[in-house]
Amino acid sequence: MMPMSGELSLVLTFGTMVCLAILLFFLFRQPGSADPWKINRSAIKLGKRLGEGSFGEVYQGLYNNTPVAVKTLIPGTMDPRDFLKEAQIMKTMQHPNLIQLLAVCTEQPIYIITELMKNGSLLDYLKVRVGRLRLYDQIEMAAQVASGMDYLEMKNYIHRDLAARNVLVGENNVYKVADFGLARVLQATPMLSSQSKLYYIPVGKAIFPLRWTAPEAIANERFTIKCDVWSFGILLYEIMTYGKIPYPDLNNSQVKRMVPNGYRMPCPVDPYCSKDVYKIMLDCWKENKHDRPTFRSLKITLRNVRV
Ligand code: ACK
């Protein structure tokens, strides 16, 4: 064997030490210490409870002395690693009609910290204003949601749970889409809150907001932005009916059987819904997903509805 020169052995020892240091860094680093928006729970002061979200409770809170909303996820709802991957993408989504993710706590229970919206969910907002909104206001809500969704569409991102309960209302008639991307990381058997059981039902190995979901997504468990367009049509129905549950006269098994066979909700009569708006709903519910409009065209069509 060739004797090793002093210089060579020095280089090898140094190399070994560097490798060891890298290995130790990856073994012992705090998960997420590289992401400044992953914060310690102590940075959040929880305030009053705002309500029960789909997969946990929502509180008002203070973060850096700024009022925020804190969504707490029931443990078991999603795998923290999957959630973190998704949150990384969610963090980059910035649009005036999308709820901004501010920070996350990734130990269980996971906290999702977002901007606070003073007027709560669109669903509740609609329900306490039955008969009191002008068509103009309703169209404005839908157009703003379409605008946020147009941005997601442009970013090749899919929401998967677009519904009035996931749109939030701020001051000065600002509407923002919340919870995009979360549905993707749901565990197959999440612990559903009692309220969520009204909306989400198990289909095969997954759970779906049945009444908001396009039939092809339920059949093959594959979501596309065109499924979001279908859900947007349902959301438009919720807006026009002041938050009625979709398919009010059908039970879940009837919805599952009849919608794929071509059944569509009729034009709401009480409260009255404009025929122009109903036509948009029907376009969103076209059987062939390629015949459904884009969010860009929905935004434009809504701006041109006669009010
Ligand atoms: O209608 P709400 O008061 O508005 O009750 C629901 C509840 O939490 C469960 O979703 C409220 N909520 C959720 N996210 C936010 C937020 N970012 N700002 C204000 N309220 C929120 C929602």
Automatic annotation (TrEMBL):
Alphabetized Gene3D superfamilies for the sequence: Phosphorylase Kinase, domain 1, Transferase(Phosphotransferase) domain 1
Claim: Magnesium is one of the keywords in the record: yes
Residues holding ATP: K71, R165
All copies of domain Protein kinase, residue ranges: 44-307
Catalyzed chemical reaction(s): L-tyrosyl-[protein] + ATP = O-phospho-L-tyrosyl-[protein] + ADP + H(+)
Annotated SMART domains: TyrKc (SM00219)
Enzyme Commission number(s): 2.7.10.2
UniProt keywords, alphabetically: ATP-binding, Kinase, Lipoprotein, Magnesium, Metal-binding, Myristate, Nucleotide-binding, SH2 domain, Signal, Transferase, Tyrosine-protein kinase
UniProt cross-references to SUPFAM superfamilies, sorted A to Z: Protein kinase-like (PK-like)
InterPro entries xref list: Kinase-like_dom_sf (IPR011009), Non-receptor_tyrosine_kinases (IPR050198), Prot_kinase_dom (IPR000719), Protein_kinase_ATP_BS (IPR017441), Ser-Thr/Tyr_kinase_cat_dom (IPR001245), Tyr_kinase_AS (IPR008266), Tyr_kinase_cat_dom (IPR020635)
GO molecular function, one term: non-membrane spanning protein tyrosine kinase activity
Pfam families found in the cross-reference section: PK_Tyr_Ser-Thr
Residues at which Mg(2+) binds: N166, D179
Signal sequence bounds: 1-34
Active site: D161
Protein name: non-specific protein-tyrosine kinase
Origin species: Salmo trutta
